[in-house]
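Final report, closing paragraph on structural work. Over the funding period we assembled a curated collection of sequence-structure pairs, and we close with a single example.
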Amino acid sequence: MKDFYKGKNILLTGAAGTVGRELVRQLIAFGPSELRLMDNNETEMFFLMEEYRNDHVFCFLGDIRDRDKLEKLSKDVDIIIHSAAFKHVYLSEYNPFDVVQTNIIGVENIIRAATSGNVKLLLFTSSDKAVNPTNVMGTSKLMGERLITAASAVRNNSNTIFSSTRFGNVLGSRGSVVPLFMKQIRKGGPVTITDKRMTRFVMTIEEAARLVLQSVLIAKGGEVFITKMPVVRIPDLAEAMIKLLAPKYGYKPADIKTVEIGMKAGEKLYEELMSDQEVPRSMELKDMFVVTPAFKALFQSIKHEYPDTVSNKIERSYISENETPLNVYEIEKYLIENRVIEKVEEFSYGSSV
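Its predicted structure, as stored:
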């Protein structure tokens, strides 16, 4: 992987986000020639600029709604990783037109910028919410995926490869339940669970960034990459965190109660990373699945062949309720080994960045 990224010019949108920052950290180790970072979060971009002052990193304030800015930043770029988006389900329901401008029109803008700049590859980071969406945010992410796939079919003399990667909950990110549970445990509870039947795919911030970077290496055009990841029951995650954190905050685990508060509008009991309709055109690799384009006739010039292919035929959709979840002990071990809690605390309380 290091040889692939070494000497490349890379543009990363959404660089100030949780996953964006981790992508920066991992990419720096690979020795890119130039790393252009774009975000509209002035404070976090300042901290990024200070942190990577001498590493061929250039920070730009900008919004993916600004096509002119994107086209300027895409000049002489080899790879674009598009991570900027509105991601909060509930806020998106209250601000649907803003979500369209950022999550859909913004994808169109980055596609046009990549095409006009003859960028070699554009990877779009999507979400499990794009599968059978029940909310505005998920629908916007699905449309983003469709635009990326369609761009591969109608490249109009451009050689740009357009692909997407789709992942589930990133533990420790700002949008995950981990910071919320930590805050509730610190206060002595209760820990609020929307529904005790709820299951979720989970991955660490490092794993999410690694999936993105691995997807870039093998992308052919028009496909969606899905990483394989463990599943947790939300009550088990809460129990594991209470066991780990209650003594640290001066409580006994038995003192911290959990309360079921009911599902929020647009929530699902389980997560879907591959739908039934996608199964017939999907294949399994060692560490991920690949969903190939539905309109095969438009992609005859693209060979969707990948290293480490396990099977060209998938038997069932990839849904969290169909997978064996980690038990409480396994979740504790996962949280400890990946320093999930420590990293949230470092970001929230112990660091200026």
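The domain at 2-350 is CATH 3.40.50.720 (Rossmann fold). The first strand starts at residue 9 and ends at 13. We thank the funder for supporting this effort.
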